[in-house]
Specification:
Length: 298
């Protein structure tokens, strides 16, 4: 079942179950349906690191559940289904919940996807979009560092859990045969070419820091090297970075190392070996793009 997406649903009644079962076919999804808040939360606690997306179709239970998830530091991809035809959700009354993480712009978290019940046939695409947006919540960074804030705010979330979920989902979607559409639905808002000057600078600084660690560990016996390469490649892929930007990062870093070696009176010849690092990174990125292209239907 590793290739299936695991979905947990919280609804006010069982009315939605037949429709979801119709649109979320069993060979692609594992659906868990709850009408009880306590049972839903118990299941999340039990399998929080295996869940791929949440679906909410509950008016009365929505805010208490969200507050509980925030208290536990749990952020997951989510689709919120509502009964209105338009996409303007009524804002919950937060007058007695001053510590609630909900904001005026979103209910659970900023990557959530809103879907009207009248558009339920699009639930599969909504799940794809929720996961794609979730993977772009923050840059993928090492767990040994504090995540660098981006323009997308995450309030009171456990960063290691968010990072773990992003890595797990990226890996799962990368390996999932026949489930490549989510890569095509990367959010253009987060593409490098669409960022403003400050956002580009912050992202490049982050990527350069990651690349530096890869270079320093590349010829060492490091068990974490592949993870670091995967993190870097995933970050550049979801930002739709051009290969030329990666080459530029490499050349800038090599120039820094060259200047340092000159100051120390050492030969720069060793830097030639690090062309292998650049080739390795580009090969990984090309493979990810290759796997993201839909196969032709024969």
């Amino acid at each position: 079942m590793s290739g299936h997406l695991s979905i947990a649903v919280l609804a006010d009644s069982t009315d939605l179950l037949p429709l979801l079962s119709q649109y979320l076919v069993a060979d692609r999804y594992v659906l868990q349906y709850f009408t009880s808040q306590s049972e839903f939360l118990a299941q999340i606690e039990l399998s929080k690191t295996d869940l791929d997306c949440l679906i909410f179709y509950s008016q009365q239970q929505l805010l208490p559940v969200i507050n509980h998830l925030y208290d536990r530091g749990l952020i997951l991809p989510v689709v919120i289904i509502h009964r209105l035809v338009d996409h303007s959700l009524p804002q919950p009354d937060l007058s007695n919940t001053s510590d609630s993480p909900a904001s005026s712009s979103y209910i659970y978290q900023s990557s959530e996807v809103i879907l009207a019940v009248t558009e339920l046939s699009g639930i599969s695409s909504a799940i794809d979009k929720a996961i794609a947006k979730f993977l772009n919540l923050t840059p993928i960074v090492s767990t040994t560092e504090d995540p660098i804030p981006t323009t997308t705010e995450i309030t009171t979330v456990e960063p290691n859990f968010l990072l773990h979920q992003q890595r797990r989902l990226a890996q799962k979607l990368n390996e999932r045969l026949g489930y490549l559409a989510v890569y095509y639905k990367r959010n253009p808002r987060y593409f490098f070419r669409n960022l403003d000057r400050q956002e580009k600078r912050e992202l490049l600084d982050l990527l350069k820091s990651q690349y530096r660690k890869i270079v320093l560990d590349y010829f060492a016996d490091s068990s974490q090297l592949n993870d670091k390469i995967d993190e870097f490649v995933s970050a550049t892929f979801f930002r739709d970075m051009a290969v030329s930007e990666i080459v530029k990062i490499h050349m800038e870093l090599m120039e820094e190392f060259s200047n340092q070696l000159k100051l120390e009176g050492r030969s720069e010849d060793v830097l030639l070996d690090y062309r292998l690092t650049l080739i390795d990174i580009i090969a990984h990125l090309c493979e990810m793009y290759r796997r993201s292209v839909p196969r032709e239907v024969s």
